Amino acid sequence: MRVLGDLLDAVFPARCAGCERMGSAVCDHCRGQLRVAPALAAPIGVDRLVAAFDYVGVARELVARVKYRNARAGIPVLAAAIVDALTRASIAAPDVVTWLPTTADRRRDRGFDHAALLARAVSADLQVPRAGLLHRCPGPAQTGRRATDRRNGPRFDCFMDLTGRRILLIDDVVTTGASLRGAATALREAGAAGIVAAVAARRP
Fold first, then answer.
1. How many structural domains does the chain have?
2. Are 193 and 44 a contacting pair, CB within 8 Å?
3. Residue 130, strand partner residues
4. What is the rounded distance in angstroms from the CA atom of residue 134 to the CA atom of residue 169?
5. What is the CATH number of the domain that holds 90?
6. Which tens digit of pLDDT belongs to each residue from 22-56?
7. Is the residue at 24 inside a domain?
8. Does 20 reside within a domain?
9. Pairing of strands 194-202, 48-54
10. C-alpha dist (Å) from residue 134 to 82, 100, 118, 165
């Protein structure tokens, strides 16, 4: 899928998520419109939660292009912003980076898992290992559901021994935190000693 993403980027050059100017996922002018997210309360089971941006305007469009259109040019921008947010929060490097997997149907329809791509870029920036630790149990996707329905969240399994490991959990957008809470439950049951969640954006 990486080859396909590179091919798409070559055939369809990046356009700015804010002004559609050719050449980059976000131009220098529109980068100034990105709103840094405030400090966030962590869901149950998660030690710290950080978000790079508020999910509005340019940031919302940037995330949507990565998530729904496989616009790979936006991934390094979001990954760098996540790493910056971790640095601002004085969060130490983890033992391993993982991600919140999308549903099997979404992955099959899109041909990729955007959170996995984002986690790969973050792990490369941090120079720490990356591993798919979570299996998403069957159930509806969170996108498009009402907040009251979202709060139940999806369920996850983890079949690896994580005793004593510090985990960095990556996702694109946090709304109620229910998905992160479900993932943290599975990681804790597998022995994780610490869990930090980092997302590209949070819904205000």
1. 1
2. no
3. 97
4. 10
5. 3.40.50
6. 989 999 999 999 999 999 999 999 999 999 999 99
7. no
8. no
9. parallel
10. 20, 7, 15, 15
User: Residue 146 CB: number of other CB atoms within 10 A?
Assistant: 7
Burial class (CB in 10 A: 0-12, 13-18, 19+), 90: exposed
Quote the domain boundaries for residue 189: 35-202
CA distances from 61 to 54, 64, 79 (A): 11, 5, 15
CA separation for the pair 114, 153 (Å, rounded):
19
d(CA 36, CA 7): 31
Measured distance CA(51)–CA(202) in Å, rounded: 6
Q: Is 19 a domain residue?
A: no
Dihedrals φ, ψ of 203, to 5°?
-75, 125
Does any domain span residue 17? no
The pLDDT tens digits for 92-146 are 999 999 999 988 888 888 888 999 999 999 999 999 999 999 999 986 665 554 5
Q: Residue with structure tokens 């159930």?
A: 139
Longest dimension (CA), the chain: 48
Q: 116-119: long-range contacts at Cβ-Cβ below 8 A with a sequence spacing of 24 or more?
A: 117/5, 117/66, 117/72, 117/75, 118/66, 118/75, 118/78, 118/79, 118/82, 118/170, 118/171, 118/172, 118/200, 119/170
Q: For residue 177, report the phi and psi dihedrals to the nearest 5 degrees.
A: 85, 5
